[in-house]
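If it is no trouble, might I ask you for a protein's amino acid sequence along with its backbone structure tokens?
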Amino acid sequence: MQGAVLYGPRDVRFEKRDEPKIIKPTDAVIRISSACVCGSDLWPYRGIQPIAQPTPMGHEYCGIVEEVGREVRKIKAGQFVVGSFATSDNTCVICQHGYQSSFKSGSTVAVVGDGAVGLLGVLSAKQMGAVRIIAMSRHASRQKLAREFGATDIVTERGDEGVARIKELTNGVGADSVLECVGTQESMAQAIHSTRPGGYMGYVGVPHGVSLDGEQLFFSHVHLHGGPAPVRRYLPELINLVLDGKISPGKVFDLTLPLDQVAQGYRAMDERRAIKTLRRPNGTK
């Protein structure tokens, strides 16, 4: 087997790895059909999130199940499956509890970030009934896709100027809900300050070097909710929407490469020449 391994900042190698095998009775072995580079992988790729040793990369994938452990009940060899970046059993109290949406039909939503996560935040807001969707982007190709996904307004300003523009578009009030999809101090502050008092700010960009001022947050009256997306809760419904042709989230894949060119995929996303890179095993289409 071969796989992508990060050795240090901007040093990704495609090399031979041990063949996977069942170790625990709840394990499964999957032959990868397609995989992608996640924007969160760019933090260790850039050296912002240090690694202590060569580290296998990649946590977005789909493929065919080849083997399962003796305690696996609902997955069988030969099935096509879609994986998540987090492991869950879908039976415990936490899995069953799930999360509620932070915005309701008719809301004004602002999205900070124009990567794959931000663009799909626009798509999600549209799908959930937002009437006005403000996408913050400086890149023409990403602005175009944001419009296609449902954005009604584009804001190119950042920081305080970006906040001022959001307030201008919302009669000085701020957006009902804001999605923070980057993970930096600047983007977090911009998202909080763009939210109206009593509004909701959801942060799904993995935070790096972010600290919050408790006093400012106290007086802002903004609800904050963030964390890794509960993918397993939403995936069945989303797959049906894709198969029915109602949404096309795959449009964020604007670069497809064979797996042995994984380093080029990381580089393209790092340099913002690609929104999201799709990788396929060599010889497949």
